[in-house]
Amino acid sequence: MWQRVAEPEVRHEATTGSHGTPTTASLSGYRSAVIAGLTVTVLYTALSLFCWQHLVATGVTTHMYRLNLGDVGQRVWFMAWLPFAIAHHTNPLVSTYMFAPHGINVLANASVLLEAFLLAPITELSSPITSLNIAGIAAPVVSALSLYYVLRRYEMRRSVAFVGGLIYGFSPALLQFNGLADFNLSWMFFPPLAVYLLDRIFFRQTGRPMRLGLLLGLLIVLQFFSGQEILLDFVVVAGPVLALAIVANPRQISSHARFAIKGTATAVATAGVLLIYPMVVYFNGPDHVATLGPKVMPGAALSSPVWPSTATGHGFLKPLPGTPWQHLFDNAFAGPLTIVLALAALFFARRHRVVLLLWAATLWCIALSWGSATRLTGSDPTFSWHAPAWYLSKAIPILKNVAWIRISILTDLLLALLVAITLDGVTSAIQANGGVWRRHLGDVTAAGAGVLVAIPLLVAGNVPYVGFESVAVPDVLRHVPTGNNGSPVTVLLYPPSSPFSGTPLAWQAVAGFPYRDFEGYAWHPQPGQRTANAGANPSPLGYIVGTAPGLSPSITLTHALCREFAASFVRNSVRVTVVIGGYPGSEPLTRVYDQIFGPGRRFGDGEIWNAANNRC
User: Fold this and answer.
1) Residue 256: which of 2, 487, 595 has the closest Cα?
2) Which DSSP symbol is given to 489?
3) What is the dihedral of CA 518, 521, 523, 526, to 10 degrees?
4) How many CB atoms are closer than 10 A to CB 396?
5) How far apart are CA 30 and CA 14, in angstroms?
6) Bridge partners for 533 per DSSP
7) How confident is the model at residue 530 (pLDDT cuts 50, 70, 90)?
8) Most exposed among 74, 218, 454, 486, judged by the fewest C-beta atoms under 10 Å?
């Protein structure tokens, strides 16, 4: 990693004949690599299906996990939005189908456009519920395979590469984010591949720098459309680590500079050209978000990597009641065995400088994951002090928007690399004297270590997931009228979407966007403001649906209040209002609408009112 070395790729005896044709040895090696790759993919997939076994049993096409959270319903919405926007020739980067008429900036939210694009055929053939569930099953497989590929490029044994991918792809952070349908934080193909390309560009410097830069630039583009936050996290971690590596080897700056500059410039140019328009929309497009967090977010505790802490995972992300092992819900948990094996890399590595650099990066990630304050366990904030992220955010205000606990994803990657180095050293020592049985013993040792490491990670990852519910679109939503030209009208729906209810968003998406929703759940600026809000609209209409559960069943509006509500519908261009029956507040809200618009039209489990029929 510190000087020019041979290309760290798996060769598989890739020899050719006198006319450049592949020999039997090369074909055999290629066939072996393909079979091994397929086998690893099947094993990762089987483990992911174990995590989602209850979903598979209830129905991938009809059921959702934790739809009581707004994030999950929002992801269903985004999975459906991209193919809908493309089919209707509208800009997929902005939308007025949520928080109408002003709308939202799709890029300014965790819109997982890459995953929505890849799974668009499934969305069209089945439903966004199906595509979202398949994305959840595929997430740990994609992440694990990306590191498996990188470790194989470093000529590590297949068994070792498998364990490395297992530790990374099935880490608690990725599994827990995956349970919330946060594919921007669980489809983590970018970090391993980016680390490999940066190593090729800055240190090993083999191959063509412009080709490597092109690949890195395209990888950045893909990650941008999967989730922008991990890009920022990666820069915050990789920047100081690269600087440390360069400063530690000043004699090689001149010999490495030209290659590194060519590769970096190509990457920046590639990503810049392809992301010019998306970046304009992101930072200055319609309904873009100018500000988010006013202060640095809290993160993990000092004890989190070794033993789960109450510092994280409780509150909004608390497991469902009855979920086993609730106290092990900590995104930053890595496990004591993982830490021990990672430390052992200092003894088993042939190139200690690489291990020292990886450990420096790991400690930097752990320190950043503390967030605003360093706490011993998180249960008692008495003994705490400002953490590195607090000072970093003071210098770079945009970093206040970072959820620092998510840096744990990069911590997991680095620990997986270190564990792989240890296991590779152990298996090499076992196999040093040759013999088939020693070769198998080395693989068995690596596999055994992987099992011992993975079991506590899966437990802490809160799997297998439980608590699935069926998503059935209420019949009344399929009878919402359209405008005079057939265009969808703006609807005030009850129950509304919120951080604690993603069901209405899922209904709208599964139904194929037959209406624009006055409410929603996404970061968006209020009209005339720059500050972002993820809740309801601050208007009398938002007040109506927000306070409905507390209304008296016999409520009677005054004439003035009736007129004010009716006028608010007109001001906000809301043409239709809908109440779904069976929810707390449905009956009193129905009485309110009857007083304003007269009796509604009932369709199955709900009623529709035409907001133009003002009786006030």
Assistant:
1) 2
2) P
3) 30
4) 11
5) 8
6) 524
7) low
8) 486
Give the amino acid at 80: A
Amino acid at 384: S
Residue 295 CB-density burial (10 A; 0-12 exposed, 13-18 middle, 19+ buried) = exposed
3-class DSSP state of 358: helix
pLDDT digits (tens, 9 = 90+) for 310-341: 544 443 344 444 444 444 467 888 999 999 99
d(CA 551, CA 348): 68
What lies within 8 Å, CB to CB, of 430 at 6+ separation is 438, 441, 442, 445
* Burial class of residue 306 in the structure, from the number of CB atoms within 10 Å of its CB (0-12 exposed, 13-18 middle, 19+ buried): middle
**Is residue 231 a contact partner of residue 220, using CB atoms and an 8 Å limit?**
yes
Closest CA to 54 of 470, 471, 466, 469: 466
- Alpha-carbon gap, residue 541 to 566, rounded angstroms: 9
Strand partners, 22: 16
The pTM assigned to this predicted structure is: 0.90
CB distance 606 to 474 below 8 Å: yes
- Terminal-residue alpha carbon distance, the chain: 76
Average pLDDT over the chain, rounded to an integer: 87
**Paired strand residues for 94:** 105
CA atoms of 444 and 427, how far apart (whole Å): 9
Euclidean distance between CA atoms 55 and 51, whole angstroms:
9
State the CB neighbour count (10 A cutoff) for residue 398.
Answer: 11
* Cα-only R_g, the chain: 27
C-alpha–C-alpha distance, residues 142 and 131, integer Å? 15
Tokens of 548: 């409905």
76 φ, ψ (degrees, to nearest 5): -60, -45
Q: Residues with Cβ < 8 Å from 397, sequence gap 6 or more? A: none
> Distances in Å between the alpha carbon of 350 and those of 358, 424, 428?
14, 10, 11
Judge contact between 68 and 467, C-beta under 8 A: no
Instruction: Indicate the range of 390-394, 489-493, 523-527 predicted with least confidence.
Output: 523-527
